[in-house]
Every structure is written in structure tokens, then in C-alpha cells.
Design the sequence.
């Protein structure tokens, strides 16, 4: 009968601690945070350091993960067909708009970034595969929630504490429900200065197989507002290529001039 391997559990817990703390940590710091004897923690750190998964500062002897784990995760993800679909969708959005394209999905009240393609402007939004975005400030998250029922949207929003992150952050559940209902009615979501002052994003959602996903373009608010129609058209075009409705039908294309469908975002950085 399979049993839990304590060493594997401790390794994953250690990485989760680094992800949460986002700083260099000493052996004593990690032993305290993981509730482990310092001797056991020291052996674990030594092993991961020798394998190249941790670096150690020369003077303070504090540890922090190297990029090796991220490189391995990227290699694993690259073999996932869903990752390939998400990456191509992001690249199409970037090519059509010049803004950063993102693809993500909602997991336990948080938006996980599956793929992104960095925008072409000097001033642009930057993300990483595996990043987590607070659901209540995410255009990706709100677009995906709009696919389901209001009850499920409210349940997901209640899973995490909704903090005031930026001037436009909405923390009132009733107002968020109205925002998601509007996204459902119009077919797309928009957030403005909600997750970061001066940053806006627009998103649409659909299904790849049975997996609900959302795609978005994100960039400086002033530039996004100036090219909002072009960004929406690009999202609708890519949505029609990538997603299908749950009943198997393709989502409808947005109407608009062909000129708008191929417009590039060329506003000032």
C-alpha cells in the first residue's frame, strides 16, 4: 500500500515557503517556518543546494531557489497540449494588439497564469507562467466566472480574502457580482486600475475541451482605453479560433470593421 514519503513532503513544503515569503531565508528561518529541527532542515537545504535547486549567499548563508525548478516546470508544461494552445493564443493577441497577451484559469479562488506573450511596447505588462493573480482584480478570472452560474462565481470569490490592492480595487461582493453579470451579458470583462494603479486588462473566456480558460490583453490604462475597440476585436477573433462553447458550437465573432480587427496598438509607451 502506498505511503507518504516525509522527505518529499518536506521538499515541497520548503518550496511553498519560499513562494510565500519571497525572500532569502536562513536555515533557522526555514526550520521555524516549517516546524522542523534545524538539523533536519540543514540536511534538506544541503541536498537541494548540491543539486542546484538552491543558491546560498556567501556572507549571510541564506538560501533562495535557483531558476532550475522553473526551467524544469517549463519543460514539463511545453509538452502539455493545453499549454501549446494557450501560448499560441497569447502570441496571436500580442501580434494583433502590441499588448501583453495572457491565458489563465481559476483554481480555488485564484487565477493561475498558464501562458503569456510579452507586449512589444517599451512600457508593457510583464508576467510569468505559474503566477497567481487575485481573482477579485483579474479580468481573466471575471471572464471565466461569467461562464458559470452566479452562485459559483460568488463561491469562488469568497474563497480568498479580498484586499484593497490598487485605487480601483473592488472588495464588495455585491459589486463584483454585478461586474461579472455585466461580463456575462456583453461577453467580455474589463478591469481598470483594480490590480495595479495605471494597469488595465480586457478578457474573454471559453472552453478548450472541457477546460474553461480565459485570455486577456493587458497594458497601461491610458493606452488600453485609447485602443479598447481594437483590443476587443482581437480578443473576439482569437476567441473564435481557440475556444468552443460548452455545447460544441464556436463562440460568435464580434462585428466591426475589418480595419479594426487588424489594427495594431501604437499608442505612446
Sequence:
Amino acid at each position: 500500500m502506498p505511503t507518504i514519503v516525509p522527505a518529499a513532503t518536506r521538499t515541497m513544503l520548503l518550496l511553498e515557503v519560499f513562494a510565500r515569503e519571497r525572500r532569502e531565508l536562513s536555515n533557522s528561518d526555514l526550520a521555524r517556518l516549517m516546524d522542523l529541527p534545524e538539523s533536519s532542515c540543514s540536511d534538506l537545504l544541503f541536498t537541494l543546494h548540491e543539486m542546484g535547486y538552491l543558491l546560498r549567499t556567501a556572507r549571510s548563508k541564506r538560501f533562495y531557489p535557483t531558476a532550475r525548478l522553473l526551467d524544469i516546470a517549463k519543460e514539463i508544461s511545453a509538452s502539455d497540449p493545453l499549454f501549446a494552445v494557450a501560448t499560441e493564443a497569447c502570441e496571436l493577441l500580442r501580434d494583433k494588439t502590441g499588448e501583453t497577451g495572457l491565458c489563465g484559469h481559476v483554481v480555488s479562488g485564484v487565477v493561475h497564469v498558464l501562458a503569456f506573450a510579452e507586449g512589444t511596447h517599451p512600457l508593457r505588462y510583464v508576467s510569468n507562467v505559474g503566477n497567481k493573480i487575485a481573482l477579485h482584480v483579474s479580468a481573466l478570472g471575471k471572464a471565466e466566472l461569467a461562464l458559470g452560474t452566479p452562485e459559483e462565481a460568488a463561491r469562488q470569490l469568497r474563497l480568498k480574502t479580498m484586499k484593497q490592492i490598487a485605487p480601483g480595487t473592488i472588495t464588495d461582493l455585491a459589486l463584483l457580482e454585478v461586474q461579472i453579470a455585466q461580463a456575462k451579458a456583453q461577453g467580455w470583462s474589463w478591469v481598470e486600475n483594480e490590480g495595479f494603479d495605471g494597469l488595465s486588462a480586457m478578457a474573454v473566456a471559453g472552453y478548450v475541451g472541457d477546460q474553461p480558460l480565459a485570455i486577456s490583453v493587458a497594458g497601461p490604462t491610458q493606452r488600453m482605453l485609447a485602443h479598447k475597440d481594437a483590443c476587443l476585436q482581437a480578443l473576439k477573433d482569437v476567441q473564435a479560433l481557440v475556444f468552443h462553447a460548452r455545447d460544441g458550437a464556436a463562440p460568435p465573432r464580434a462585428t466591426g470593421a475589418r480595419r479594426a480587427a487588424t489594427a495594431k496598438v501604437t499608442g505612446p509607451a
